[in-house]
Amino acid sequence: MKIVYFSVTGQTKRFVKKLSLKDTYEIDPIDPEIEVGEPFVLIVPTYEKDITEPVTDFLYYGSNQEQLQGVAGTGNRNFAQLFVFTAKDISKEFNVPLLYTFEFNGTTKDVTNFEKAVKKIES
């Protein structure tokens, strides 16, 4: 399964680099309109919509929204009910499961649990 992600400060990118899943694509904030053409899981950090607008542009481009299988979110738990709100909003808007949430760039346990969630979606 392809992993598509968006990284603002590098935290999400650091998480993705820890994965054993190597088929990854980082959404380019300058040119987000790329069609993936295959099923994927999206990982997003938590930011206001104006910062994550490239993610929305990416999802609405071509068949990307149909290929989206699930979303995972990263953020800061200190934000309480706002923790991973970007991933929660995408999950609702595109009617896909919220597969996993983690803080900052994730722990070894987060990597393992995320990969298990992706494998479950694949089967």
Structural features, described:
- It is a single chain.
- The protein has about 120 residues and is an alpha/beta fold.
- The chain has one domain: Rossmann fold (3-Layer(aba) Sandwich), CATH 3.40.50.
- Helices cover about 35% and strands about 20% of the residues.
- The chain contains five helices and five strands.
- It has helices at about 10-20, 55-60, 65, 85-95, 110-120; strands spanning about 1-5, 25, 40-45, 70-75, 100-105.
- It has a five-stranded parallel sheet with strand order 2-1-3-4-5, with helices on both faces.
- α1 (about 10-20) links the parallel β1 (about 1-5) and β2 (about 25).
- The longest helix has 15 residues, at about 110-120.
- The mean pLDDT is about 95.
- InterPro entries: Flavoprotein-like_sf, RNR_NrdI.
- It comes from Ligilactobacillus acidipiscis DSM 15836.
- This is Ribonucleotide reductase stimulatory protein.
- Pfam families: Flavodoxin_NdrI (PF07972).
